[in-house]
Automatic annotation (TrEMBL):
Residues 1-33, 229-261, 278-390 are annotated as: Disordered. Residues 278-288, 321-340, 348-358 have a biased composition (Basic and acidic residues). It comes from Brassica campestris (Field mustard). The lineage of its organism: Eukaryota, Viridiplantae, Streptophyta, Embryophyta, Tracheophyta. Pfam families: DUF4283, zf-CCHC_4. Residues 379-390 have a biased composition (Basic residues). This is DUF4283 domain-containing protein.
Amino acid sequence: MHRRLSATAKGKGPVTESHEAPRTGRVKAQAPEHPDLLRKHSLKLIGRVTNKSAQRVRSLIPFFTDLWKGDTRPVGSDLGNGMFQFQFDKEADLVDVLEKRPYHYARWMVIVERWEPTYASSFPSMIPFWIKVQGIPVHLWDEDTIKSIGKDLGVFEQAEISSSAVRMRVQVNGRLPLMKNYIIEYSNGEEVTASLIYERLEKHCSKCFRLDHDINDCLEAKAQLRALKEKQEPSSKNTQLETQRDRDGGSKTGNSPFQFAAQSRLDLEKEGHREKYYQSTHHDESGHTYHRRQSNRSGHQGARIGQREGYTRSSSYRTHHSTDRNRNPKPHSEQDRSRYETNLQWRPRTEPSIRFSKEPSQPNAEALGECGKKDYAKLKNKGNSRKQHT
């Protein structure tokens, strides 16, 4: 039989020595020096989304896997923090993908660069764009001028100057605001403003020209709107005070010894509406207003219009139109009157003069004859017998 071990023998006793982690947030590591490891990562693409809320890396990886497939399909993985990577098997497939930049997903730009042995947290950040340079006079199109703009903007690659347009390919930092205008200063003191048009540029902020949000989420636009509202609040308060004074009977000035009893704005509006109404109702009878009123009245009243010529208006007729009381109706022509005339005539109701009794009337003896008298007697006796039976 086995012997039972104690808790101390099993190592379950209380811990006598306390161990606390330093938690400094900083450690030291050895730099990699393996050439094979560097050669392994040389066929990788490192990417970053510009808008994390609108671009999901999990759905982005299968999309670019199908888009970038060549002889073999690249293998993508999520690196976190809006970053991803793709491993290629051939150098040609990798170079072909880099030449077709820039890329976008869900209408927002995507930053893609070849892997580099760098320690910078801002990597990757460069997006190559073809940029049209507009606003420069035709006789000032010079490759050196375009090259100077490209070097100031980012990493200049090449320039194309034709008879109709000027273009340049520049790698721009996608994590910084885009530059849309440039001022070119010439040696003779003249200045020219050149505007930059980015080709294949998707959604971005039209206020600060950043690629990670639109104008609805722009902090600069919100701050400007807030400042504008604060400036408008004092003026709105002053207007409210002025309107309140007008309602109370006008503003009182200390320098004036007189006080004017001004009418309220509501009374002025009532008088204005009343004047407009009288002006509209006192038109000439030959005008459009009278004919429009007559046509509406004829459509609603029907046959009563035909009798209006002999009708005398009373004071209770259309009391809400004071101007129509004293106006005689315009007589209708014979053609209009014939439209509303009918052949129906009114007759008083008469009570029937003949009252029917429950008892059947006695037949005429001469009309019945001898045979009829006998049949009538039989029917009468038969009816009496039924009454007695019931």
